[in-house]
Design the sequence.
């Protein structure tokens, strides 16, 4: 069985996808570090104004190998956005992006 547990630190500038997802991974737990970002997984690159918004300090789950392959992120301003990502497998049938911290 291939090793599917892996950690990645991803710097986000222009639209970029996961760079080191291991073969067989269908789950990624992500935390947003340093600056805000946006994400899309519908085949269109996010922009500073379009896509799901995640603030620095938010966390979210990406479920489904096709979503892991398609998702892209972009930073929303001139700061240095970074994602901490833990890859693995999950078998509960979820598919998409889940989580995030409610902003008040």
Sequence:
């Amino acid at each position: 069985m291939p090793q599917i547990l892996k950690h990645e630190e991803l710097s986000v500038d222009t639209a970029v996808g996961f760079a080191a997802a291991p073969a067989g991974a269908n789950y990624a737990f992500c935390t947003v570090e340093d600056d805000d970002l946006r994400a899309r997984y519908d085949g269109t690159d996010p922009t500073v104004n379009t896509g799901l918004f995640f603030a620095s300090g938010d966390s979210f789950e990406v479920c489904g190998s096709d979503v892991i392959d398609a998702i892209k992120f972009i930073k929303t301003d001139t700061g240095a956005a970074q994602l901490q990502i833990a890859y693995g497998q999950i078998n509960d049938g979820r598919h998409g992006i889940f989580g995030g911290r409610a902003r008040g």
